[in-house]
Specification:
Order of helices and strands: EHEHEHHHEHEEEEEHEHEEHH
Largest sheet: 5 strands, antiparallel
Distance between the termini: 11 Å
CATH superfamily of the largest domain: ATP-grasp fold, B domain
CATH topology of the largest domain: D-amino Acid Aminotransferase, Chain A, domain 1
Number of domains: 3
CATH class of the largest domain: Alpha Beta
Number of strands: 12
Radius of gyration: 19 Å
CATH architecture of the largest domain: 2-Layer Sandwich
Shape: globular
Length: about 300
């Protein structure tokens, strides 16, 4: 973003996706932080008239705090490119790739990153019989925040009876056992000349790391930095940067892993990269940044200063 005096930042939040409530929380937190950082801020709940609202807002730059489809999959990014409005986080292609779990896995494999066996199947096929030997996971191919995830245990005799909320085609992937680890990456334009990973968080929860575990107070416990061997920490940091770069991400991203400690480094599996990571009071990115000495207003300022078109 070109330097300008007191730029007006439009924070996009809410939107029509399944992750609307999380986005509202993220956006409000970011708006507060940006005001603390000295910016003039307007908050916009993204709807079908977003282009008109942005045009009339007088905003100089857009802080994208949307999560899920339309806000995180390249759609809003394309609108902002068309309008010529500088915006934060990843661009059209990287957003679309990261949101499409099947294609992002293709990019990871091409970069030599470890992922589990997976495939795209019709929901009807999945309901009618096991498409792979349990245990496995069924999820929408283009949602985040563990929305619509079914875990099929190894003792399951019957295939999953997917609910009506599931799309016609879904991803089925081999279940990766172990601990839930995650790493934040600050892209090349944020605080340095090269992308850098911050640290590793071990996410501890009583059961499956689902939507409630991610966002409800007390749903999970974050161990920061993760109490794991040095080689696993180093691998997480390396893999997260390589994933960020393989997808072409910009600004902030967060890459999630599963680690089966009984298998050492061979047990570390990359799950997915989030191009619009959560910024709620229980979110992982602000925690990791604070651990590395970056307070939340400073983090949000850096993200805005990295904003541009043609991302």
């Amino acid at each position: 973003m070109s330097p300008m005096a007191d730029p007006l930042v439009a924070v996009l939040l809410g939107g029509p996706s399944a992750e609307r409530e999380v986005s509202l929380s993220s956006g409000r937190e970011c708006a507060v932080a940006l005001r603390q950082a000295g910016f003039c801020v307007t908050e916009i709940d993204a709807g079908a008239d977003l282009g008109l609202v942005l045009r009339d807002s007088g905003a100089d730059v857009v802080f994208n705090a949307l999560h899920g489809r339309w806000g995180e999959d390249g759609c809003v990014q394309g609108l902002l490119e068309w309008m010529g409005m500088p915006y934060t986080h990843s661009g059209v292609l990287a957003s679309a790739l990261a949101m499409d779990k099947s294609r992002s896995k293709d990019a990871y494999r091409a970069a030599g990153l470890p992922v589990v066996e997976s495939g795209i199947f019709s929901a009807a096929e999945v309901r009618s019989g096991h498409v792979m030997a349990p245990p496995y996971v069924v999820k929408p191919n283009n949602e985040g925040s563990s929305v619509g995830v079914y875990l099929i245990h190894d003792a399951a005799e019957e295939p999953p009876q997917l609910g009506p909320e599931m799309p016609a085609r879904v991803m089925v992937e081999r279940f990766a056992p172990g601990r839930e680890l995650t790493t934040t990456v600050l892209g090349a334009g944020v605080g340095g000349d090269v992308s850098r990973a911050l640290t590793v968080t071990d996410i501890v929860t009583a059961g499956w790391y689902d939507y409630d575990a991610k966002y409800a107070p007390g749903g999970s416990h974050h161990v920061l930095p993760a109490d794991i061997p040095d080689d696993i920490t180093a691998a997480c940091l390396d893999y997260a940067v390589r994933a960020h770069d393989a997808l072409g991400c910009r600004g902030v991203s967060r890459t999630d892993f599963r680690w089966d400690e009984t298998r050492g480094l061979d047990g570390l599996i990359l799950l997915e990269t989030n191009t619009q990571p959560g910024m709620t009071p229980t979110s992982l990115v602000p925690e990791q940044a604070a651990h590395c000495g970056i307070d939340f207003p400073t983090l949000c300022r850096w993200i805005v200063e990295d904003a541009s078109c043609d991302r």
